[in-house]
Every structure is written in structure tokens, then in C-alpha cells.
Amino acid sequence: MKLMFLGFGTVGQGLAELLIRKKALLAKQYGLKPVVVGIADFLKGSVYNPKGIDLKKALAYAKEGRKLSELPGTPFEGDALSFVKKVNADVMLEVTYTDIKTGEPATSHIRAALNKGMHVTTTNKGPVALNHASLQRLAQRKGVQFLFEGTVVSGTPLINLIRDTLAGSEIKEIKGILNGTTNYILTKMEEGLSYETALDKAQKLGYAEAVPDADVKGWDALAKVTILAGVFFGAKGKPSDYSCRGITKITSADIAKAKKAGKRYKLIGRIWRQNGVVKASVSPKQIDLNHPLAGVGGAANALTVTTDTLGDVTIVGPGAGRIETGYSLLIDLIKIGGGV
Ligand code: HSE
After folding, report:
1. CA-CA distances (angstroms) from residue 256 to 198, 239, 259, 302?
2. Of ligand 1's atoms, which has the minimum distance to the CA of residue 207?
């Protein structure tokens, strides 16, 4: 299985580490022998080598700040789109930055790869939130797979759970905690910290960005809600079509009041049907303490999927992280390789 990386940041490197660590298992259990034949990175440079790139070396170069174009192979000067057109691989891993407004340039990278007959797996929310249906159709036409387990709850296998494990069920509602940073902040506020101090801690721990808007205003959760609404409810809405409120207006007094009433604030993303129409939203909600979502503290994510067969099924796990998100790509690769 020949792989091409577009992007070699935290997530790409997380997968590279897993490919090294799990080399023997992949071969023995799934008959998979992945060979990375190309890496393109906007900042670190690009290289291709049909004989295979040494991943240990690539990781060391990335760590030392050395250009990947210095790795054994052919250095490449053009942009990522030209790279896709030039280099031949079985699978493209699209792990460049997310632009949730346009979905670009990632959507164009994915289209080009699918058009070339390559399978694609991505952790990039933009293309899936905005163009899932057309990309899926293109993949089908080309007889390849377009997978994106890592776009929602990173490697915690929510998408596989609904698509494969709950096969044959009608999905009535999905609701849950889709953003770890805000869940961490709300947990700390319940422990007595102010919003500002909790946010500061989240930033120091690397959960929240210096400009924390995407998390605290609910936009990141909204992107994930849009993906789930499109993939599992057939909705055509863009993120801007759904209502979204973050946690910036929640005060310590609100949290104390909810606690007294036996409840706990969580930033909840929800997708459901109302009179046959798909609805979706992100907003802070008071959850009963005996609901499974109430017990999920810190930076964890959790989703309850309501089905016609099993009733409620809840999955809890990490929603971010280098290895965790790298693992989402590994799940997709094993699937593409026919392992599961
Ligand atoms: N920043 C997100 C979170 C992870 O805190 O959950 C990436 O979607």
C-alpha cells in the first residue's frame, strides 16, 4: 500500500509514529505493508521516492527543523495540488490545515486524488463539512474509498461505530460533547475557577489556541455537527445554516445554580429530526447528573447515539491529540486495505 502525505504536522507525524510502531502488527494481522512514497508539507518542504521514504528519518528531520526535501528521494518544489498530480500512490492522507469557510485547498487536493483513482483519508473538517456528498459520489464513481474518521472525535471511532457497528439501525439523534477544550473549561469552572483562569489553564495545557474563538464560540463543535448531519442524516446544510452558541457567556454563577438543581453545564452538539426535517445545533445545556454525558469531565469527548434498535448508545474517548488523531488515519488505512 503506497501512501502519500499532504501535510506533515502533528497529525501526520502521529500517524508516522504509529506506522513505525505497528509495522509488524499491520503485516501479521492485516497483511498490510504501507510504504510512504511522498510527503508534501507547506513549511517543511516536499519529497517523493517510489522506493519508500524512511519514516524514522522523516520524523527526525521534522523534529530538528530540517527540510524534508533533503531526505533521500526527489525534492519537489510545486504546491500540494501539483504534488498530487505528479506522485503516484494508492492512498492520499490529507492532513493539511482546516479552512471551515471554504474547505480549500484541501477539497481540491482530495478531488485531484480521487480523480486519479487514489483512496483518500482525511482529518480535515472543511472538505467533509462542506463537500461530503460530492466527494463521496466522486469516490464511488472512481471505485475508491473516501474516509474521514478523524474529523469528528479524532481516533475515538464514532463514525465507524455509527456506519459499521450500528449497521441496520435508524439513527434518530446524535448528541454530545464534541469539543474537549470547552469541556475542560466547564469542568474547571465547576471546580471553582473563573472562566478566564480556566481558559488560561486550557491554553497552558495546549488545548486552547492563543485565539480561542474556534473552541469557546462553538465553531469547532459546529463543524463536527455539520459533518454528522451530512453523513448520517443526509442534511445539505453548511455550518452557517445551524444555530451555534459557545460557552463565553456562561458564568460561575450559572454553573453553581445548575449544580444546586442537580445538573451540569455541557456544550452540546445535537442533530435530530423534527417533523421529517433535519435540525442541528450547538449550545450550552444543563444535563441531568445521571445522564452518561454528565459524568464526562476534562478534555474528553462523548456522544450518545439514539437508535431504533438499541435505544441509546454512548461512546466516550479522546477528541484530540497527536497519536489519537494519527490513529484515526490508521483505522481508515486498515479499512482501505480490507482489514476490517
Ligand atoms: N480543539 C478541538 C477540541 C480539537 O478542543 O476538542 C480539534 O477539533
Report:
1. 15, 31, 5, 23
2. 5
Burial 275-298 (b: 16+ CB within 10 A, else e): eeebbbbbebbbbeeebbbbebbe
- Alpha-carbon gap, residue 220 to 178, rounded angstroms: 8
Separation of CA 266 and ligand 1 centre (Å): 15
- 215 Cβ closer than 6 Å to some ligand 1 atom: yes
Query: Which helix H or strand E contains 25, and what residues bound it?
Result: helix 23-30
Side-chain-side CA neighbours of 93 within 13 Å: the count stands at 34
What is the whole-number distance in angstroms between the Cα of residue 181 and the centre of ligand 1? 6
pLDDT at 339: 84
Q: Is the CB of 207 within 6 Å of ligand 1?
A: yes
Please tell me the predicted confidence (pLDDT) of residue 216. 98
Residue 156, ligand 1, Cβ within 6 A: no
The protein residue with its alpha carbon nearest to ligand 1, atom 4, reads 320
Whether 224 is catalytic is yes
Q: Ligand 1 centroid to 52 CA: how many Å? A: 32
Whether the CB-CB separation of 179 and 283 falls below 8 Å is answered with no
Q: Is 113:144 a contact under the CB 8 Å cutoff?
A: no
**C-beta separation of 334 from 32 below 8 A:** yes
Low pLDDT (below 70) residues in the chain: none
Query: Which residue in the list 44, 175, 224, 335 is annotated as catalytic?
Result: 224
pLDDT of residue 323: 96
Q: What is the pLDDT of residue 340?
A: 81
pLDDT attached to residue 48: 98
CA triple 283-289-291, angle to 5 deg: 75
- pTM value is 0.96
The per-residue pLDDT for 248 is: 97
Q: Quick one: which of 327, 325, 284 has its CA closest to 125?
A: 325
Domains in the chain with CATH codes: 2-155+322-336 (3.40.50.720), 161-318 (3.30.360.10)
